[in-house]
Write a structure and sequence with these properties.
Helix content: over 70%
Structural class: mainly alpha
Strand content: under 5%
Largest sheet: none
Amino acid sequence: MNSAAQIRLAGGAIAILSLAAIAAEPSRLFLYGVIGLCGAAGFILAPRFERDERIRFGVVSAAIVLSLALLARIGEASGALTNEWSARIAGAAIGVTLAITGNAVPKLVRPLSEQICNPARRQDAERFVGWIFVLGGALYALQWLAAPLDAAPLRSILIAFFGFAAAIGASLWARAGRTEPQRQFKGE
């Protein structure tokens, strides 16, 4: 499946689930309508973003989180899920997205012209950040699924805070090993 097809599938799934959510909870028409319009826009504009891997990854990741959240809300509105499990599923979806993002971080390739620090230090920092996001995302998801629900919001905020603090620290460490751009002098 090519990139445009993946974006269309993600956008279409969001649009269809938004319609189902509107049918289940008509009082939230505006919220689900905006989410559905974003999905429809992704479906329509997919060919424009076919070549950009980062946009495709972002759209598909967002579609996964929104789809799980919408499915949880539909399940809650229909009585198939309790409010507690709806919240747990939405929280776990965010954790899974963090883990997926962490897996992708070290694989992003940037042109050498964008390198403002030592490439080896940058690669080490990106690998560290990737591991922090994978482990933090897994811990985030597990605590939403297993921990007492009243403690889950505070714990998830702390997990995210410490993970992002570690990522910022790794970025600063990588930039400390800057490489100066080569200056070209014209002959005198």
